[in-house]
Give the backbone structure.
Amino acid sequence: MYNKLISGIAAILLLLSFSCSNSANQAFVPDPGVVSYTFRTQFQEDVPGTLDIIREMGITNIEFSNLFGKTATELRALLDERGMICTSYGVGYNRIVGDIDNVAEEARILGAKYVRVASIPYERPEFTIENAKQTVVDFNRAGELLHREGIYFCYHNHGFEFRPYEDGTLFDYIVQNTDPRYVSFEMDLLWTVHPGQDPVELLERYPERFRLMHLKDFRKGVVGDFSGSTPRENDVVLGTGQVDFPAVLRAAQNTNIEYYYIEDESPDVIERVPQSIEYITSIKR
């Protein structure tokens, strides 16, 4: 009896040890998606062929920011044929203000759980509190309408929103004044580091508000600003720039982030995206 008990306990401990070992060896992001903008040149020439290229890289999840001349129905059929999915649908600010019903319908057809806006129009050179206040109104309205359709609305930071305002930034103002029931956020890592923000601190400050992330790196030695603009050569292969990916991904585990998308603005994405996939999937828990 005693020997059986000891053997049983030993077996349980071995199983727990194996389970913990497996957990420790799991990647933070085992199956990264990709932003369609990464392959914009290829998509403009051949949508089905570009989907085949992406699928061959092992990527099945795409955040589309463009339908590339297809209808949502046509694009969904091409994805279905390849066992691929669209989880997020990016549109311009003007569409969430003036065409939200059609946006919701396109997202529904694509199967997207999220609708994302990547920038806010404003008069250069500076994004202001007046811009932020109007943004709050527009985001709350669009987010509520999409919520009724079972779709999350996300805003993708672009750098210019991090200008100082009162005790924080204009980004803080937008987060704190939008309704968390209707408005969430997608963190773009380059456009967080570029204006001098710490992505880990931001994730820890708003863990409930972030739901998506753009995996994107910023060239070492380059100092950014609040312009929301930088030469494309400053967008580098993941793990070769300024972003501390292990720290970011560790912090992201305590947030609502569901999907991670690689974004690369260089002309060499066929060579670079596989390198970024290899790096990001090598970061273990």
User: Anything to note?
Assistant: The first strand starts at residue 33 and ends at 35. The mean pLDDT is 93. The chain is about 45% helix and 15% strand. Residues 2-24 form the longest helix (23 residues).
